[in-house]
Automatic annotation (TrEMBL):
Purpose of the protein: Methylates the class 1 translation termination release factors RF1/PrfA and RF2/PrfB on the glutamine residue of the universally conserved GGQ motif.
Domain spans labelled Methyltransferase small: 90-185
An example molecular function term from Gene Ontology annotations: nucleic acid binding
Protein name per Swiss-Prot or TrEMBL: Release factor glutamine methyltransferase
Chain residues that bind substrate: N177, P178, P179, Y180
SUPFAM superfamilies: S-adenosyl-L-methionine-dependent methyltransferases
EC number assigned by the record: 2.1.1.297
Gene transcribed to yield this protein: prmC
Any single Pfam family the record assigns to this protein: PrmC_N
CDD domains documented for this protein: AdoMet_MTases
HAMAP family: RF_methyltr_PrmC
């Protein structure tokens, strides 16, 4: 029995958007071609390839890992299970960092993962000097490919937080989306998070330990009046503001994402 693109769209067990993404990936078509070729009959090889992808999605694997890419800040990013999947919420962190970065300024992205933050900053602010670090060599390999694919220049360092920065000049802005999910949180065993690198999700403690390290170490690597900006969990803003205040940062505040959740907190190093 012949199978057409249209029949696979009608009969799919998946969400319509997921199904369209997998069909495009399996057949090597864009969305417009999927429409214009809707009555095309698939070859056996194409049908098998599509059904294999569907089974991976039905099992729970994230779409981004299945197709190997995700868009972030209007740019394409390669992703695999060595890095977190970039999420729209994190675009707020990029916007805040960009707004606080002076002309020809220096910015550090800590725990870069796929490089989404660093590459987006380098692409938008071509005058800036962008450095990004991660403890994972596998993550850095992905980040370097993303920088090359998006034709931007970023200095990448393998580093356990600030360890590799001893001889580095101070930065105008430090931005980070660190592991902030508390150990044992039920979300770690649900949805896409089951497939993402656990070390990039949780600090294996109370969810604040990485944020404490970043806050305490930043003054040695920030210029006077430089900004520290950090993404955190939906219920952590008050705690992060308290940590920043205790560490004597100025202009401590939190910013809300598109859903109205306090998603990023930060402060300014006193002169």
């Amino acid at each position: 029995m012949s199978v057409t693109i249209a029949s696979l769209q009608r009969q799919s067990v998946l969400d319509a958007l997921d199904n369209r993404v997998l069909l495009c990936h399996a057949l090597g078509l864009n969305r417009i071609a999927l429409i214009t070729q809707s009555e095309r009959v698939l070859t056996d090889e194409e049908a098998q390839r599509y059904h294999a992808l569907v089974q991976r999605r039905v099992a729970g694997e994230p779409i981004a890992y299945i197709v190997g890419r995700r868009e972030f800040f209007g740019l394409p990013f390669e992703v695999n299970n060595a890095v977190l999947i970039p999420r729209p919420d994190t675009e707020l962190l990029v916007e805040l960092a960009m707004d606080r970065l002076p002309a020809k300024g220096r910015v550090l992205d800590m725990g870069t993962g796929s490089g989404a933050i660093a590459v987006s900053l380098a692409h938008t602010r071509k005058d800036a000097e962008v450095t990004a670090l991660d403890v994972s060599q596998d993550a850095l390999a992905v980040a370097r490919r993303n920088a090359a694919a998006n034709n931007v220049r970023v200095t990448f360092l393998q580093s356990d937080w600030y360890a590799a920065l001893a001889d580095t000049a101070p930065f105008d802005v430090i931005a980070s989306n660190p592991p902030y999910i508390a150990n044992g949180d039920r979300h770690l065993s649900e949805g896409d998070l089951r497939y993402e690198p656990v070390g990039a999700l949780t600090d294996h403690a109370d969810g604040l330990s990485a944020l404490r390290i970043i806050i305490s170490g930043a003054p040695r690597h920030l210029k006077p009046q430089g900004w520290l900006l950090m993404e955190h969990g939906y219920d952590q803003a008050e705690a992060v503001r308290a940590l920043l205040t205790e560490a004597d940062y100025a202009e401590v505040q939190s910013w809300r994402d598109l859903a109205g959740i306090e998603r990023v907190s930060g402060g300014r190093l006193k002169a």
